[in-house]
Amino acid sequence: MKARLLDQQLLIDLARLDGVIRTADAARRNPAQSARVSELLTERHAQSAVLTGLLGDRDDARAELDRLESDVALVDARSARDTERLAATSNAKEAQGLEHELVSLAKRKSDLEDAELVIMERLETAEAAVAQQEAAIAEINAEGARLSAEGKAAVAAATASWESATRDREALAARVPADLLGLYDRLAARGVGAGELRQRTCGACHMVLSGTDLQALRQADDDEVVMCPECGAILVRTLESGL
User: Fold this and answer.
1) Could you please report the per-residue DSSP string of the chain?
2) pLDDT per residue over 127-179, tens digit each?
3) Measured between alpha carbons, how far is residue 231 from residues 5, 104, 192, 202 in Å?
4) Do residues 98 and 89 touch, judged by C-beta distance below 8 A?
5) Which of 162, 224, 228, 230 could form a disulfide with 220 if both were Cys (CB 3.0 to 4.6 A apart)?
6) How far apart are the C-alpha atoms of 233 and 243, rounded to whole Å?
7) What is the per-residue pLDDT for 243?
8) Residue whose C-alpha is closest to residue 50's, from 143, 130, 119
9) What is the average pLDDT across 100-124?
10) How far is residue 152 from each of residues 136, 146, 155, 224, measured CA to CA in Å?
């Protein structure tokens, strides 16, 4: 294929813009923060399940403490009633029965209060565990919110870069002859379509060309479209090619 060297040199900028477009498109579709955000969502789900269990333990302890406090209140009410009856009775047998019941009630209250202390310690431990777990989840949420915001900003920046490069590419492609552009697009579909030959190195694959290959390039006409023998991209020759 023949094409003016100036037209061929347009492919250098075209390839650069295509690189920007590919990079920006990948960044907007999958920002760097996505993987960590996904990890945090999984971690939060697992930690929330742990929190549910801890909340259940705390609520069970609270319910048990409420029950014991209610039982103590009932014992106190019964003791108060028996004490009043004992003070008012003149029946020795009834008095003896009331005194025996008051002793039993005192023992019952002591046992309940001992149980309350155990449950209160259990409740304190459960509440501390819940607070610690909630703090851990709050840290996960904070990191997730920060990364989500950063991800949105990165997507917006990448989208702006993609749109700008796409517009520039359309304008530049309109200046490239149709046959040359068609060849370039076919090559670009499988990799880098063109690269500048600079200091005997292909700009597409970054391989240094052999002496034999360079000699063949020296013998090619300026308007001949040549390919890199290593990667098959269009080799664009300039004053910096080192031929």
Assistant:
1) -B--HHHHHHHHHHHHHHHHHHHHHHHHHS-TTHHHHHHHHHHHHHHHHHHHHHHHHHHHHHHHHHHHHHHHHHHHHHHHHHHHHHHH---HHHHHHHHHHHHHHHHHHHHHHHHHHHHHHHHHHHHHHHHHHHHHHHHHHHHHHHHHHHHHHHHHHHHHHHHHHHHHHHHHHTTS-HHHHHHHHHHHTTS--EEEEETTEETTT-PBPPHHHHHHHHHS-TTB-EE-TTT-PEEEE-TTS--
2) 999 999 999 999 999 999 999 999 999 999 999 999 999 999 999 999 999 99
3) 20, 97, 9, 9
4) yes
5) 224
6) 18
7) 73
8) 130
9) 96
10) 24, 10, 5, 46
Mean per-residue pLDDT for 186-191? 93
- pLDDT band for position 240 (50/70/90)? confident
pLDDT of residue 241: 85
Tokens at 40, concatenated: 């945090």
Contact residues for 22 (Cβ-Cβ < 8 A; gap 6+):
none
**Residue of 34, 28, 38, 36 lying closest to 154 (CA atoms):** 28
| Interatomic CA distance for residues 23 and 161, integer angstroms | 9
The whole-chain average pLDDT of the chain stands at 95
pLDDT score, position 242: 77
- Got the DSSP string for 131-193? HHHHHHHHHHHHHHHHHHHHHHHHHHHHHHHHHHHHHHHHHHHTTS-HHHHHHHHHHHTTS--
| Position 232, amino acid | G
Amino acid identity at 185: D
Residue 239 has pLDDT above 90, yes or no: no
